[in-house]
Amino acid sequence: MSEVYRTRRTRLRERCNASGSAAALVTRPANVRYLAGAAPQGAVLLLGKHEDLLVCTGPPDDRPSQGRLDEALRVQALPSLGGDPAVAAADLAEGQRADSLAVEEHHLTVARHRAIRSVVPRLRLSDLGGAVEQLRVVKDEEEISCLRIGAEIADQALGELLESILVGRTERHLALELERRLVDHGADGPAFATSVATGPNAGRRGHRPTDRRVEEGDFLSVCLGATYRGYRCEIGRTFVIGTSPADWQIELYDLVFAAQRAGRESLAPGAAYRDVDRAARQVLDSAGHTEGLPALTGHGVGLEIDEDPQLAPSAMGKLDACVPVTVEPGVHLPGRGGVRIDDTLVVRPEADGGPELLTITTKELLAL
């Protein structure tokens, strides 16, 4: 894997050099992990003029869930626990005779930025911007393999929940059980806070579980994800509890399913982000659901659960192959509940079979 990380750092260095920066300081943890293999708490990565260094407050943690550090990368531990690795790294860059340093201004606090300037006043600071995030958009097959395993774990956890008795249990209890099952099946942990929503809460994006108990006839919507070797996936499904679905539930479910299918089928290399969003959104719009729809139809996933690209009405850009994204339309009817269906897929060309579905739990409207 050392070659993979070295290649990633080389690509970033080429971007920095092209913009006139001799060195770069990476502080955002997910970006550090992407370039170094691991991101110990508080660690930063210096892409130096002559040598790359991981600067941290102490020896790196060797737990597998924290990643495996690139063995070719030298680690510089601070002599004092009170020091700031970012400030120390800037000082090291100046020591390598760099005259400029690109920093992640979107991640650095103002206080930290000022501290760096005070230590290296002669070093010209520039903005690295989202350069690393842009490199992270297209995944290699090793990254996709981690996402695929994470999706399998999430599918397993959800499948086991569906086989248990649900009536009378609270949203909060079900969410905690799902997160425990994720770990039992080999996940590092949940990819985000698990959402379980019942009855009038169902279908709300990002709903935080409450003490409301599952009742007969409820919609039950679940959204969960697993983290595996740092990579995060997402799945969301909606079910009916205990009885045959009511006509309005079937109608609403079929509508959201049609929107989700339209979004999935529009995923292809070269497809505009906004066109994927439009494909799903217009199905809901045409049925009169124009108010209260989610701000986006989906987003990228990887070392963070919400990455670029954003599949939204105003998003600029086009999809590439090997980009994992979610497609997650939903409709919530105030006071009644709603439906959300959410999959993680990898964009693939038609010659390779089209979009690869990672989350495979049935999307049939089940009565549990």
Tell me about this structure.
The protein is of the alpha+beta class and 368 residues long. It folds into two domains: 1-135, Creatine Amidinohydrolase, Chain A, domain 1; 138-357, Creatine Amidinohydrolase. It is built from nine helices and 19 strands. It has helices at 2-18, 29-36, 85-95, 110-119, 131-136, 141-162, 171-184, 247-265, 273-286; strands spanning 23-26, 44-47, 52-56, 74-77, 100-103, 124-127, 189-190, 195-198, 219-224, 226-228, 231-232, 235-240, 298-300, 307-311, 324-327, 330-333, 337-340, 343-346, 356-357. Strands 4-3-2-1-5-6 form a six-stranded mixed β-sheet, with helices on both faces. Strands 7-10-11 form a three-stranded antiparallel β-sheet. Strands 8-9-12 form a three-stranded antiparallel β-sheet, with helices on one face. A hairpin with a 6-residue loop joins strand 13 and strand 14. Helix 3 packs parallel to helix 4, helix 6 packs across helix 7 and helix 8 (247-265) runs antiparallel to helix 9.
Rg from C-alpha positions? 23 Å
User: Number of DSSP strands?
Assistant: 19
How many alpha or pi helices? 9
Percent of residues in helices:
25-40%
CATH class of the largest domain: Alpha Beta
Distance between the termini: 45 Å
CATH architecture designation of the largest domain: Alpha-Beta Complex
| Unreliable sequence segments | none
Q: Order of strands in the sheet with the most strands? A: 4-3-2-1-5-6
Structural class: alpha+beta
Basic shape: elongated
Helix and strand element order: HEHEEEHEHEHHHEEEEEEHHEEEEEEE
Give the overall average pLDDT: 94
Domains, number: 2
Strand content: 15-25%
Name the CATH homologous superfamily of the largest domain.
Creatinase/methionine aminopeptidase superfamily
CATH level 3 topology of the largest domain: Creatine Amidinohydrolase
Taking the sheet with the most strands, its summary is:
6 strands, mixed
GO molecular function: aminopeptidase activity
Keywords: Aminopeptidase, Hydrolase, Protease
InterPro entries: Creatin/AminoP/Spt16_N, Creatinase/aminopeptidase-like, Creatinase_N, Pept_M24, Peptidase_M24B
Domain Creatinase N-terminal: 8-138
